[in-house]
């Protein structure tokens, strides 16, 4: 266990070497000349021109002018945290990767979550793919698992990646809309590149608006290989399964949260880690023997296809825990460089044409963003283990290489650094036999665009299907071209004819012909209805005035703490609220400084206020919003009049404390359930 503990601390110690704390220090230039004046530049007379010889001014302004590096073309808006990965069981039967050999091995990780389309200043809750990138600092080097929260992608071949990004980004003539796919060029691309059909179903589903980073699934998307010590290979896909389950916002919430708190998801990650509620994800793998490569009715190398879990089960082999926030967002989150080509021995690539293109693109991007080939020397990108090679010089070189030799082979340095054999841990590519003519094209096995899109639709619950229909209606309703709207509806008829005809009516286009594919299968793993439901870390708003029952409130708060439910007391002002027995409680937020869409549940305590009419109005509006978002509501004895004033119905998910000795326990169960879809929300 001592070795594990040492390994966990190595990366932290490495990063600590670069940390600077300015507390109690004297100001200097970057060359350590002490500064006597940081208020006025050097001038020729008090009202004269500034002199170029003011080296402090030039250094300070020059550094400021270059503070911003080019933001990522995609995944620009990101947030990250440190953590560790612990292996459940040895995977030596399948791979010789060192960090997957011994149960209990812990590996430091850095994880960056992101949206794809928007700029770095865009909204957290936009409908979009979310990046889920994990950097493993293994003892053999860096392994980057660069994935998304959706297991498939828009395109099959990386050659088309610039096209999909150009299409989904703001339209170039007016730079509108930001962080949104609801515009003509995107849907024109979809209609004319129908390999997008499966991905579009995911994007229009609740998966594209996750509740937070802690409750979203992660996928490696591409097909990789495991290779063991004997040189035997298995195809593999990677999964991250959140311990708290997979949960999403609804569209009404997502839009309103964007206005109430555009940093909603990054704030959630920061605050939960800061409070000790560490996000956890189980690491799973789907493995397939090469002999079964052509066994299924989909091509296992096609990135627009999943491997259904009912056919190829996910084996959970470890757990990722995020337990430390970053110290500096720019130095770590912005400067971190992920690359799917960063693998360790025992993990190799497949011929997935999307992956093959990514192996070039990511490295090429980092060279531009981070100023040259030495971005690997930035602290957050440095491997845990030392590295040795003959690469030299370039912008921002930090290593000071000694000696006269920088080439291979050599005799002056006894041919060092020397290569390693496979037995010594040297990376050896899997010797796959490849033959065929040089050709531009794609395999016919990639031609089925609609079967898995239909499988996804079949797997959705009725509320999820309604959300997909509404999402298509919103997105296509923003498309100005009637021709594009018609083309998309015609395409969707291949997936589900009823969906397409309903959209045709909503969008005022022609009813499509029925070309629905004949797929009746479903995959329960694809529906969020079948996920885990637990109360831990969910946020409850307690709306309250004065003259309430303190004992009743304290009992509920004790249960919240017992089950890890977070809560905030919300009142008309920040003045402490006073119970009927004179006991006071501190207020965390007011109706003006928060919003009902920021919470997962509501506890209506009610009471009196100095401005009762305003208080009653704010209470009613808060309750109505939570009610209309299908969320659980608990009502204290003093809260009944306020709930009744909303004219909301005492329906599923509405729980009254009056004459209910089991109120607290039942309320916790309702909070865990999160949504009550059968509720009539039209009040």
From TrEMBL:
Single annotated GO MF: heme binding
A GO biological process held by the record: hydrogen peroxide catabolic process
Domain Catalase core: 28-416
Known cofactor(s): heme
Catalysed reactions, as listed in the record: 2 H2O2 = O2 + 2 H2O
A Pfam family that the UniProt record links to this protein: Catalase
SMART domains the record matches: Catalase
Keywords: Heme, Hydrogen peroxide, Iron, Metal-binding, Oxidoreductase, Peroxidase
Gene3D superfamilies registered for this protein in UniProt: 1.20.1370.20, 3.40.50.880, Catalase core domain
Annotated active site: 75, 148
EC numbers, comma separated: 1.11.1.6
Functional summary from the UniProt entry: Decomposes hydrogen peroxide into water and oxygen; serves to protect cells from the toxic effects of hydrogen peroxide.
Name by which UniProt lists this protein: Catalase
Organism of origin: Metasolibacillus meyeri
